[in-house]
Amino acid sequence: MYLIGEDFESSLISFEKLDRASPDLWPEQLPGVAEFAASCKHPITNSPPKWMAELESEDIEMLKELGSLTTANLMEKVKGLQNLAYQLGLEESREMTRGKFLNILERPKK
User: Angle CA(15)–CA(19)–CA(21) in degrees, nearest 5?
Assistant: First the structure.
């Protein structure tokens, strides 16, 4: 048996009253979100965070540049920095060895 028109729509109406205050019937979708939202008293502002106050304009430009890189380009940049750090370590090791042979690093005798 098929209902047509208003009979069909009236058959879909539910007069059941649901108590939305019950946590058992309507559990929180993401646990802790309500408490977090309540704890956030400060509205979101466009002011920069505290850590950015100490940055110079060059630092901010570098952050923007790094932020605009693709993942592959960022990985290349990181590899380049790792290679540079390795080269600096080798150079420091050579200089320390040189200083040792020239007795530059020897402590004065008492």
Answer: 160
Length of the chain: 110
Q: What does the alpha-carbon distance between residue 34 and residue 46 come to, in Å, rounded to a whole number?
A: 24
- How far apart (Å, rounded) are the C-alpha atoms in residues 68 and 79? 17
**Residue 109: what pLDDT?**
72
Give residue 8's identity as a one-letter amino acid code. F
**Residue 33: how many CB atoms within 10 A of its CB?**
10
Question: Distance (Å, rounded) from C-alpha 1 to C-alpha 9?
Answer: 15
Q: What is the pTM of this model?
A: 0.47
* Closest to 80 measured CA to CA, from 96, 54, 72, 35: 72
pLDDT of residue 36: 75
Q: Do 25 and 31 meet the contact criterion of CB atoms below 8 Å apart?
A: no
Tens of pLDDT along 53-108?
788 899 999 999 999 999 999 999 999 999 999 999 999 999 999 988 888 877 77
CB 74 within 8 A of CB 66: yes
